[in-house]
Amino acid sequence: MFIEQPPLLYRILFPEAIWRINRRGRRVVYLTFDDGPVPSQTPWVLDILDRYGIRATFFMVGDNARRYPDLLEEVLRRGHSVGNHSMHHIQGVHTSTPRYLADIEEAAGYIPSSLFRPPHGIMRLAQARELRSRYNVVMYDVVTRDYSRRLTPDQVLENVCRYTRPGSIIVFHDSDKAAPNMRVALPRAIEWLLSQGYGFETLPMA
């Protein structure tokens, strides 16, 4: 459960971050995708979202946005939001604060957004303090773990069904690593969420 739904203590460490959005009882969730955009997965995800008429937020690696600017534009054209996921997907706890901030700022040159999500959901407290003046730091309420080779698509779906609640920020990945699980679990997760009366909203970029 520590990975799938971070406990209160971990959330308290980063009080400036957004973990979940309380909409006063409204059954709304925020579907997010990390690590893209990539030609092998992102267009497929966009088509799935179009099929169900829902919108999501894509936290993009800057180097991918640099290589595939047409995909970033297509994500925006279809009505989705984007966020900064650093330039090179580096972990803050293993990186000095100046280097970490510089990597994020490099990504900002390609990703037009005030949203930031730290890779792996980990960073130093000093980094978080520096970032809050420019970014809305978005964490998550549910991690599907679609990237794990130890999990099956059924288990990924079960993570969504078990941990989602109104206001949850849910993390999938539009990456090749996650694809074997994501491509099976994502449509089923969307259908389950819809069957439970959930609506979908994007995170505002400004």
How is this structure best described in words?
- Helices cover 38% and strands 14% of the residues.
- It is an alpha/beta fold.
- Strands 1, 2, 3, 6, 7 and 8 form a six-stranded parallel β-sheet that branches. A two-stranded parallel sheet has the order 4-5.
- The longest helix has 17 residues, at 179-195.
- The termini are far apart.
Question: CATH top level?
Answer: Alpha Beta
CA(first)-CA(last) distance: 32 Å
Mean pLDDT, rounded to whole units?
Answer: 95
According to CATH, the homologous superfamily is Glycoside hydrolase/deacetylase
Secondary-structure element string: HEHEHHEHEHEEHEHE
Structural class: alpha/beta
CATH architecture: Alpha-Beta Barrel
Shape assignment: globular
Helix content: 25-40%
Number of helices: 8
Query: How many structurally independent domains?
Result: 1
Rg on CA atoms, Å? 16 Å
Most strands sheet: 6 strands, parallel
For this structure, the quaternary state is: single chain
The tally of beta strands, per DSSP, is 8
The CATH topology is TIM Barrel
Low-confidence stretches: none
Strand proportion: 5-15%
